[in-house]
Description:
mainly alpha; 3 strands; 66% helix; 3-stranded antiparallel β-sheet
Amino acid sequence: xxxxxxxxxxxxxxxxxxxxxxxxxxxxxxxxxxxxxxxxxxxxxxxxxxxxxxxxxxxxxxxxxxxxxxxxxxxxxxxxxxxxxxxxxxxxxxxxxxxxxxxxxxxxxxxxxxxxxxxxxxxxxxxxxxxxxxxxxxxxxxxxxxxxxxxxxxxxxxxxxxxxxxxxxxxxxxxxxxxxxxxxxxxxxxxxxxxxxxxxxx
Length: 202
């Protein structure tokens, strides 16, 4: 399926809907929890219908609709901007907004800011980043893939070294020579990932 054939869903910033007396971070976490609960209900209904030996016509239509709603998303590129595209896969994602924010500004400073100001399960988020990296490699989106590789490395640093050492790295990357070394590491990481993914398709 070509990118032109993929239905594009633009990601909007829903935080503008928040009442000024409501803490935006709490509101966002609440919305995520509500969405997760709703998704569980949809999955339960889909599984219930799947267990039936024979389905009525309206039940078949309901299953199609549920499958459509439960289809996960991955970040793709369209007309110079980031969008969220549908893809048939069983991957369960929850961090579209955070990843888009990191892709718009893939600096370590912004990465730390996003991780610090949002409730993120680093293991789940890392899986989501790697899934996106794989999909963008398949589509030939090298620019996005490079940024995702950078984010993946940042995640590894946080998980393995803690926030203190990552803050030190943030200071070190202000040095042009060390920044160049890091960019080379990102390129090697991306090239290795690209080779591995494309070889799997052969």
